[in-house]
Design brief:
Structural class: alpha+beta
Helix content: 25-40%
Number of helices: 5
Order of helices and strands: EHHEEEEEHEHH
Number of strands: 7
Strand content: 15-25%
Length: 132
């Protein structure tokens, strides 16, 4: 008879663990994020081979949003979503309001620096300066 949870590993690499708990779609994407500095363990950027321990806080930058999770169980094999939730404590902030994100001005990539007028409009939208 098999249990709902796979056997816990004595140690797990950070790239393998974040892939196993479904924070990344592939292990190579997790390793690439580690090398780029988008994965931090206890506030320190780590390499893909960094070993995790129970209670480590992991901050992952995925798709422009930051995910903050605490390691509950060390696993090395990819598991289902229901099991993955049991292996971590999610302390991520709620995602921003979609209406706010849609209201933010976006510049086309490669269009240069914003003009003074565009900077003022951006500041006004973000509430940084009083509207005149």
């Amino acid at each position: 008879m098999t249990s709902a949870l796979p056997s816990e590993a004595a140690q797990a690499r950070v790239d393998s663990w974040v892939w196993a708990v479904r924070l990344f779609k592939t292990r190579s994407a997790a390793a690439t994020a580690c090398r780029a500095g988008h994965v931090r363990v206890n506030g320190i950027p780590v390499k893909p081979a960094h070993n995790l321990k129970h209670g480590d806080e992991i901050r992952v930058r995925v798709g422009g949003l930051e995910r903050i999770v605490v390691v509950e169980r060390l696993i090395t094999k990819r598991v289902g979503a229901a099991v993955a939730v049991q292996c971590m404590i999610d302390k991520s902030p709620p995602p921003p309001d979609p209406q706010l994100v849609a209201a933010l001005p976006r510049r086309d990539r490669g269009s240069g620096r914003p003009t003074k007028r565009e900077r003022r409009e951006t500041d006004r939208l973000l509430g940084r300066t009083p509207e005149s």
